[in-house]
Amino acid sequence: GESVGLHLPTLSVQEGDNSIINCAYSNSASDYFIWYKQESGKGPQFIIDIRSNMDKRQGQRVTVLLNKTVKHLSLQIAATQPGDSAVYFCAVPRQGANNLFFGTGTRLTVIP
Amino acid sequence: EAGVAQSPRYKIIEKRQSVAFWCNPISGHATLYWYQQILGQGPKLLIQFQNNGVVDDSQLPKDRFSAERLKGVDSTLKIQPAKLEDSAVYLCASSRAQYQSYYGYTFGSGTRLTVV
Q1: For the segment A65-111, what is each residue's pLDDT rounded down to a tens digit?
Q2: Which residues are CB-contacts of A69 (< 8 A; sequence separation ≥ 6)?
Q3: Cα gap A39→A105, rounded to integer Å
Q4: Which residues of B touch A100 (CB under 8 A)?
């Protein structure tokens, strides 16, 4: 089955610094990866996705890097702001299914 | 467009009681999901509907959990009888696509269930 984990359960960064959240996955056949942000009391919100034929994708202040060799992806947030404080999940399609498997999540705390 | 609506927002029940949650997906979204999120964990799929049919309930504890989406629009998830370990946030999500519907999930805010 799938396994998607994050290297650190919590991450604290100073406002204005860059944040890097890491995620390891187990299924080398995974071809699509998504990052979600979940603020307190809300459902997960889509941030950015990447397909396995890419190794980098950029959005607004966010970049996702994919290293298929070591089955690792990361989410980089530039100039982290207090509004970025949340739990971040990586997710992959469940093997043989038409739905998503979510990792455990990393709690990002931005220190003003 | 309006988001995914869920109610109630919070529910506290005693163990062995029953409880029901309601979800109204985004208009026109064919696929609807129920996820269970235990505190400190990622969401875990309980059941997936495509229109009014079940396409994946492999992780649904069927001895106590049931769900329906009778007219292919809104859905109800029921737990009967509840156990302490059912304390969690129950998230509903919807997606417009039917094939590879994991593109474009939109989640509701969830129902926080506490079983005492």
Answers
A1: 999 999 999 999 999 999 999 999 999 998 888 899 999 899 999 99
A2: none
A3: 12
A4: 45, 102, 105
d(CA B9, CA A41): 9
| Distance, CA of B9 to CA of A65 (rounded, Å) | 36
Terminal C-alpha separation, chain B: 37
3-state secondary structure (DSSP) of residue B78: strand
Tens-digit pLDDT profile for residues B8-46 = 999 999 999 999 999 999 999 999 999 999 999 999 999
Task: Output the six-digit token pair for B20.
Answer: 């029901």
Tell me the nearest-neighbour CA distance from B45 into chain A, angstroms. 7
Distances (CA, A) of A31 to A55, A57, A103, B53: 11, 14, 16, 27
